[in-house]
Amino acid sequence: MTSAIREHGKKHACNHHAFGYVLVQRSFAFSIVSSNRPRDGAWSAITRMDPTHASVTYTPEDSSFERDDGFDFIVSNCGVDSSSAHVTINVVPGPTLTVECLPRSILLKWTLPEWIKMLGDDRISDFIKDFRIYRCPISSGTCTPSTTVYETVNDPAIINNPERWSFADTAVEPDTVYCYRITFRHENDCDASIIYESPYSTTECSPICCPDSERGFWTDQGPTKEQLATWVMGPGFTISNVGYSGAPAARGIFGNGVNANLPIATGVILSSGDIALARGPNDEPGAEKINDELPDTDLDAVISSETTFTTFDAAVLSFEIISATSNRIMFQYIFASEEYPDFETSFDDVVAIFVDGTNIALVPITFDPISIFTVNSSRNSSRFLSNPLNQPAFNLQYNGLTTLLTAEIEIATNVTHTVKIAIADTRDRRLDSAVFIKAQIQCP
Ligand SMILES: [Ca+2]
Ligand SMILES: [Ca+2]
Q1: At residue 354, what are phi and psi to the nearest 5 degrees?
Q2: Which ligand has the minimum distance to the alpha carbon of residue 275?
């Protein structure tokens, strides 16, 4: 008896895996002998599926280009071999994925292979099922495959419109590497359901600090206090025991500072009100937020030689650092306020940076602290810049600001030091002030 092969080599289109199968005429015992193994891929041992079917899994060596491969097979029964037959495997590309860093988000953009589009441009959703986005944790610089679906895309309006083939991942932390992959399932004309997947795509940037020229000057209250400490210190320091006291709206980050004419592109902002008020134009004489926050006694001490009043609405970021390599700490910062110009001799809002208890934020040469009384249009005026109402020199709400100032101090290596950055209103909680501190981390 000769096994009759009625049909063979049904063709499967697939990216990473493909299989051919043979169909024999009726049910009887048989075996399959392979010959002429695939040229560009590896295949599994032939597996009996049922009395009439057998399958083999094929994995192309390189799935990034489109080409055909195949193998020959012989079905034998009772020692009588059939003639050789050939299975063709059509290997086609799968989807591709790119990732782009934006402020506090990562934008994923994908493309689908041409063969999918040719199935019907505006009916792609008829052929694509279970479109999934996987976000994979990173370890040791490589992607760790995730089996947990991060996001699904089911909306035909998105799947059928190439201009909408994107997804913004906003749940990102700074200085964290993320890795993504997309997959979809295609039900093809061979009654098979095959999963297509993109290669992994990895970000290696600090997502939240990435410049976005279309966004203009921005502030963001989202980052944690630990992120703020990391931003102002930069690499080389181990940071611990981070604390923040003050209103949640009073601290955060800013970006595109150049858009506001600031000499700092990105950094941390602390204020005695709401950091969102920092954004220009300067269209109010006295923008303010009453936070009902407490004074800071260290700041009270800093201004005690200038005024008898105490502080209010303090915002205080504090932490400990240790470094094996850095014997110096440096901050570059700008102090800005709504107290200028009308109250520059009556309401002494203040900022200070304490390292191991010593205030290192001082007017150069003079050793004056940084406050409304010590830097203004008449005192230390070379350090002062006016931002008049409705004729903004800077795209900031604040009516005046200092030039870019530097606070630095030598420190011992391998010793824990305390850092405390504090700002507050003085005498009342009105007409807020802010400090812009340059980020020491690298942005792409
Ligand atoms: Ca103003
Ligand atoms: Ca206030």
Answers
A1: -100, 125
A2: 2
